[in-house]
């Protein structure tokens, strides 16, 4: 069922939300009040999530179950939907206007002036709220119980993307009210803002927890289906858009994308963003570098990159000096756990790699000490990767035959 047109709702609003004259008007008034209350609760939740400092982002909700995570993501997506709708509908612009489209500004304005109670019910209906909640819940339940690529990881990516977006869009800064943040065009593009948060939600849905290279080596059915190209990322996109196009979400789609061209642009942005997460693809990285150079110019020798390279070398040198009789191997952004120099011992332990955790990084000294204990193969918190696909297959088989630790 499509949502009512703005004109039709505006004609009904004075009688439906005023003093009840009939049973019909009483029902409509109660409906408006119920939606307003739910919108107000979601506004407060979105503001709470966005207001967290970067260093503490996600720590307050670390113990949330899937329903709590779903509600927080729904709150953030609802704000993005409001930004899209209010930037389009001239009939609402007089009553709903924001100095910028950041989550902070929209939430502050709504809480201060009761905009949600007065006007949001004209397009955020009960059916829209339920459809949004059902979609987010379906995607969250589509994440597998992996050590890393799980629903908690998806939630942290969502709130991180929302925080970065908010920092770019928000005109007001408490520390420096006159500071202007460059937004590179996204400030005036609410569709791209929505695409960013949506991509963060769906980017690893149904991920199997193993690298694309491993799926290709094992001739996995997904690798065959996607021709060995960004297998996990393409699977996530297929799952996300297959659910999104179901009939029960038609009203939600029509609200956000009333024109076909808008949905086509949204879909293209999401596909590019999710495929960008395949950092192991040389072709994809080359495309990204070309786009970056075209937009901002070459950055191969910026001061920031030089400083990071120096810090990384110093860190690895210090770690190597403190690890007596052990070798340190670093590849890309992954940190390998120290392994003994004795080749026989190294083969018995198997290659191990410590992947960066969802929030922060683990201490390689601590993990190295844990690896020196017994039964390394059953230490399932360590992701075995960065070695040959055949070795990963063997270790995966060993893990499947062992009871959980």
- Strand runs, count: 5
Question: What's the helical proportion of residues?
Answer: 55-70%
Q: Average pLDDT across residues?
A: 74
Strand order of the largest sheet: 2-3-5
* Uncertain stretches: 1-32, 324-386
What is the helix/strand order?
Answer: HHHHHHHHHHHHHHHHEEEEHEHH
| Computed structural class | mainly alpha
Strand content of the residues, in percent?
under 5%
Shape: globular
* Main sheet attributes: strand count, strand direction, barrel closure: 3 strands, antiparallel
Rg on CA atoms, Å: 25 Å
Number of helices: 19
Distance between the termini: 50 Å
Structure in words:
- The protein is 60% helix and 3% strand.
- The chain has 405 residues and is mostly helical.
- The strands form two sheets. It has a three-stranded antiparallel sheet with strand order 2-3-5, with no helix packed on it. A two-stranded antiparallel ribbon has the order 1-4.
- Strand 2 and strand 3 form a beta hairpin.
